[in-house]
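Got a spare moment? Tell me how you read both lines of this record:
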Amino acid sequence: MASKPITRIEHGAPPIKKVLVKNSVLQLQCTLQRADFNSFQEGCEVLARCKAPQVVFDLTRCTYVSSLFIGMLVDAVTSMKTQGKTVLVQVSPQVGRFLHMAHLYHLFDYSIIEPAEEV
């Protein structure tokens, strides 16, 4: 019976951050899994507390979103708009198709950003 290769993480290596918040931009580094939702929610709370009048959700590296994630995004965008912030949501074409099929363009505006061409 052949054994499967084991992927090892070096001890002391920093964990990979899937959700980054810098200044007034929340960026997803990849598609989130269920275990990552707390990180996303914490990032949304950081954006809500920031003093910037405009915030950005950069979901251009995310290719799939679950209904739970969409609910969290809608809540965050709605809350920030209620605070008077201008909210920009940038999504990948895959996520844009999902948002359009769910008719979320009625709740908030989003921009579909095509991936940069590989050279």
